[in-house]
Amino acid sequence: MVTLRNIDSFGQIAAEDEPVLEYFLTTDAVTDIENGKALLVLGRKGSGKTALVRHFTETKPEMHGQPLSLRNYPWSTHAALVDKGASQAEAYVASWRLLITIRLASMVTELGAGTYTDTLDGLRKFLMENFGTIKPETKSILTLPQLKVVGLTVGPQVAGISLGSITFGSPEREKVLGLELDSLANSLLTDVSTAIAELSIENLYLHFDELDQGLDELDDTKKRMLVGLILAAREIKRSTNLRANISPIVYLRTDIWEQVAFSDKNKISRGSTVRLVWDEPTLKALIESRLKSKLGDSVTWSDIEDGGKMRGSQAKLQHMLSRTLLRPRDVIQFLNEALKVAKNRPDDPLIFENGDFNACREEYSEYLRDELSDEIDPHWPDWTDGLKACSKTQTITFQKDDFLRNYAKIRSPGNPYDGDSTLEQLYRFSVVGYLRPSGGGGSSWSFRYSDENAGWDATASRLKVHVGLKEHAQLKEERAAK
Fold first, then answer.
1. I need a surface site. Which of 12, 93, 124, 180 has the fewest CB within 10 A?
2. What Å distances lie between residue 275 and 29, 43, 156, 287, 350, CA to CA?
């Protein structure tokens, strides 16, 4: 007997807080990463980036190692490691390239723990002398005052002079720091390549995760540092002398990627980027993978709901998904809220009814507003001015002119955006959509979360608040308002 009483919850919304591997759903993104196609993985907050990292690093640690978490990364310390001889876009390539190389040295040394060769022994000496371990934390690699050059087969040189160490933060050395970092990275890569051959390693992956923890506020320096990481990862990936397929992969929020600009951005976006995009079939499959884990292998979505149609002859699945940003975390949150409501009924077996979905929407709407606030606040603290202006229209759909009048009355003194710019920003974060003409004389609502390629139409006159925010903003359907 299938009953929702046997489920405590559908899971946590944050991948780091739950056993996602018990019901991990393999998607096209997994295949693209395994095939070495991905340099960059883009997705909104909650789209599954950390779940992917955990899948790879926890199920295949011999190839994927530990995730290179940049949570609490010392960005301000790293900011001083500028290559004065490089362009602004490439000012941090040398430092990131060295960090990646040291992590590669750590990975091959760990994989060769039961093997002795002169090369592996030298890499161990380098790591132990500098970090006291063969597994240094990512955030500690470039925070030392000095890196000692020991154990390497070919010592680094600059202008024919051998380097015994590299000192960070030395004003008299800053003009040649980039050359020194590159030279040390090259010496390390030579030995890493030899060790790879000795251990018959075919593939190694490095996963850079949790960049958003320190990059919410992007100044020019952090933008250059981010570009430097991506370019350094690409340079390592392209290297032809490493004797293995090395794949550094950077996981990044889409809104952060949108804020940087450099000459090869479009090339990377189109040729080396995996975008985490979910739709109804994949989100339904994600739900069912959790159901199978919690209730049995044969359980499907239709087993846990009564099949009744919501208002407008909408199936429950579509009713729920229309209130999300098509992200796993939104679906999980909605189902958890609906489950709380359902369990107040005495029914057994317990399955979802229309009333459960209707009654949970208010709590879910507050969740969605908070999620958007987490995402938008670092870029635009006054974004709720726009949402308040939408609320004043009282209906979920509204005319642009009405919005502009309302917004002018409530705009905060320090808010940098006028009414037109505010609508564009609200569209960017999928708070609002606009009515777009479609073939055959019809029209449809365009929201960025469901169609990133649509773009903003500044001439649009008819707009709509995302239906998931309807309860928070206290809006009505137009028919109900009339």
1. 12
2. 8, 6, 39, 21, 37
- Per domain, the residue ranges of the chain are 39-271, 279-374, 382-481
Q: Are 320 and 10 in contact (CB under 8 A)?
A: no
Tell me which residue of 423, 426, 445, 425 sits closest to 435, measured CA to CA: 445
Stretch (H or E) spanning 274: strand 273-275
Residue 468: HSE in the Cβ half-sphere, 13 Å Cα cutoff: 27
Largest CA distance in the chain: 82
Q: Quote the CA–CA distance of 203 and 243 in Å, as a whole number.
A: 9
Distance of alpha carbon 103 from alpha carbon 137, whole angstroms: 9
Rounded CA-CA distance 436/446 in Å is: 6
Token pair, residue 428, equals 């960017």
Start-to-end Cα distance in the chain: 45
Q: What is the CATH number of domain 382-481?
A: 1.10.10
The secondary structure element, H or E, covering residue 220 is helix 220-238
Q: Tell me the two tokens of residue 129.
A: 């002398």
Q: What's the token pair of residue 290?
A: 């959790």
- The tokens for 94 are 């040398």
DSSP SS3 for 158? strand
For 193-232, the pLDDT digits (tens) are 999 999 999 999 999 998 887 776 788 999 999 999 999 9
